Amino acid sequence: MARIVMVEDDPLMREELIDILQKEGFETVAITDFHDIALQIATLAPDLVILDINLPEQSGFEICKSLKSKGIGPILVLTSRDKLQDELHGLYLGADDYLTKPCNRDRLLARIQNLLRRYEGQPSLIDGGSFSLDPNTFTLYKGSQSLVLSANEGGILLALVQNRPEIVSKRALSERLWGTDQYIDENALQVNLTRLRKTLRQLNLENQIETIRGQGYRLRG
Amino acid sequence: MARIVMVEDDPLMREELIDILQKEGFETVAITDFHDIALQIATLAPDLVILDINLPEQSGFEICKSLKSKGIGPILVLTSRDKLQDELHGLYLGADDYLTKPCNRDRLLARIQNLLRRYEGQPSLIDGGSFSLDPNTFTLYKGSQSLVLSANEGGILLALVQNRPEIVSKRALSERLWGTDQYIDENALQVNLTRLRKTLRQLNLENQIETIRGQGYRLRG
DNA sequence: ATTTTCCCTTACACCATTTGTAAGTGTTTT
DNA sequence: AAAACACTTACAAATGGTGTAAGGGAAAAT
Asked: A75 and A166 share a domain?
């Protein structure tokens, strides 16, 4: 079941939330130490974060921004601040939904399900800057366009995406594709890189792969 | 700029919406013929749909459901129905957000931006019930698993998903794969269906395709 | 109960795609 | 100027996709 992390400093409200969510079958984790909240949440790997705004050490707005920059979501803000400007600010910072207290139990649950549904039906794609890559199938996505890379092309791109923005040596790429127990001429790597660059051009992804002479390759961006 | 399709039968409200959105730089398309709305919207390929609920021929709820089954989204419901049960129903049917009229202009725009931001960068997958399908590459997604179907297997599954839960005749499937100007033995369709069923089993998707003897096939769920 | 019809499955051969090798070219470094 | 490194294109072999053929099973018709 989905893991929901709650950032709420009012003890009574927190217990009530925990009760509602656990009755619904969710795994709940409540933040009680209000220092370095974004870091704590990152290590918890939540499926959804319920975030209050008025907190002791940091504003929920700051936390929201920090979570977003770490790619953690979805984030549902649940706060007593019911002014329109606060809602606009929260949404602007990247909150996925903004609800005000007091909130009807069924409404809260419906909004939570809504966010979970939207995120969990999505494939686990790895962000490559200007594109996304499915590590299972080597399917490359850019906007509404997509294409499937061949095994070799996909293996190379995956290695570069996973190590972005670090340089990946030719030796590491060769081992990634062919292992160490069979001899493949080094030129095969060059050829496959040329094929990959050509394929990337089909999605207008020019100059994504940068050559560092004598060291290896890296993904730009 | 993003294309927003509006389904609103009140002319004054519709004009006001168009004005607000165009001033913001959006491309707007307003539905004025209220028959077969889901089909019209599908051909428009919108980036977002603003949907009223009280409409002349069909309920916005039905349209929402139909759009969702065709993988069209996001959907922002904007309605005068402000009862909690209506909101819950809309979210249950798959609406991505539910706002009631009258709605503050800045709030509406913020919610629209919120949805657009969340969907751009995501591949356009069609919902198949227990799985999702990328119509470009025939990549099949189920949870964190994915695999790429062959052209024939993908073409068959796509047809079934797009017509779900309707029956698709063998003739329609054959025409989808081979057109009408070349003769392919009917058994080729049977063979490819067997191959597709075997591939689906690799993702534990048993019994997804139902045979209706003498009529055709349909997707379960 | 038997026959006919429809659907499914497996194997085979042909076609399309992927990929390592070979050879040539261009650029950068020594 | 020569050497080293990187890139590109073409070719042939290997691999995967797919229609056809043949056989079998189940449901419907007689």
From this structure: no
